[in-house]
């Protein structure tokens, strides 16, 4: 098969699998009573809207109000990160399969047609679903190409086992030709990025555990929403699978709640440890896991979790042993108290900045607009939550970096004590 044809087939197959899965779920819900006022064509259009929205395409919506002549309009721009991850995985398979089917020097012959075919599919789908109440701007179809391109890169990485195809080997050669100071600085920055990643992953894992606990505690309100919807067993199963697309967003929102900043579910609402202001919410069972009331007297302890995650990152950074900034400051300051304090402070500030920048982007992607009305703003305030989490993790990292030698010291001394008798007895043993 020609490479260009295989590229077209693989990209179209990935796109069709994604939208077909959505269509099956939505049609299943429709057959069991959901959206009784919609016809099958409208359900298919909804599947197309979700496929585009799951890849970052803004969709303009116009909905007439029942019983009135008023018309509500707005823009749906929201990434259900669970759905985005599935679509990204499908495109990752495309990159892996194309790399396996062709030589590296001929890979472009498959990739260029694949990208063009995926873009044409997105454009054709946006044209089909653009009717009187739904409009997709032509430039919006570029967003799926971004997801597709990222998936291709990840697929190539999976196939080749390294990032050399992106020119990282040349970067490594350049680094080896630099001075020792430059190599130390680059090693330090790489270690800081890894430590920040440890802190972020620990915080996200903690938020995931807390989300599971909230779902368990609020299980009765969640089942009540299911009963009100009346979708039946199979319709409820389809609805649950659709809600799984929102679960990563909810975990990130809970993480913002753990920082103390909280998040919103519509204009004028706020869900935070210090208090909750909630208005009418959409009939999404998963959202019933949000406690209707909260007070800082009961939830103060969650504010300590990000700091604890920072302590983990600080201990990891100390054990990594690549903090060359500490060596540089110690050589120039020399004071036995000021130098370590200044080095620890500098380390914490740099790590906090990395965490803040990364989480600002992540929270921005997890937020957005559900279209119109009060739900034109949902999710956390990305910049404020990012700065707060960065500060909390940075403080924890400084504590962890200071405490790490105390934690490690007994391990080293005990190891020495255990090995010393063996050496002594061995040296006394006659030939």
Distance between the termini: 73 Å
Q: Unreliable segments (pLDDT under 50, ≥5 consecutive)?
A: 409-431
Q: Bin the strand percentage.
A: 5-15%
Q: Measured on Cα atoms, how large is the radius of gyration?
A: 27 Å
Number of domains: 2
Q: How many strands, what sense, and barrel or not for the largest sheet?
A: 4 strands, antiparallel
Q: By helix and strand content, what is the structural category?
A: alpha+beta
Give descriptors for this structure:
431 residues; two-stranded antiparallel sheet; single chain; 2 domains; alpha+beta; 69% helix; 15 helices
Polypeptide structure, described:
By secondary structure, the chain is of the alpha+beta class. The protein is 69% helix and 7% strand. It folds into two domains: 3-171, no CATH class; 179-415, no CATH class. Strands 3-1-2-7 form a four-stranded antiparallel sheet. It has a two-stranded antiparallel sheet with strand order 4-8. It has a two-stranded antiparallel sheet with strand order 5-6. The termini are far apart.
Short description:
This protein is of the alpha+beta class. The protein folds into two domains: 3-171, no CATH class; 179-415, no CATH class. The protein contains 15 helices and eight strands.
Give the helix/strand layout.
Blueprint: H1 3-31, H2 40-53, E1 59-64, E2 71-78, H3 81-101, H4 108-129, E3 134-135, H5 142-160, H6 168-176, H7 180-217, H8 219-229, H9 232-244, H10 247-259, E4 264-265, E5 270-272, E6 275-277, H11 296-299, H12 304-320, H13 324-333, H14 338-366, E7 368-371, E8 378-379, H15 382-428
Antiparallel strand pairs: 1-2, 1-3, 2-7, 4-8, 5-6
Helix pairs in contact: 1-2, 1-3, 1-4, 1-9, 2-4, 3-5, 4-5, 7-10, 7-12, 7-14, 12-15, 13-14, 14-15
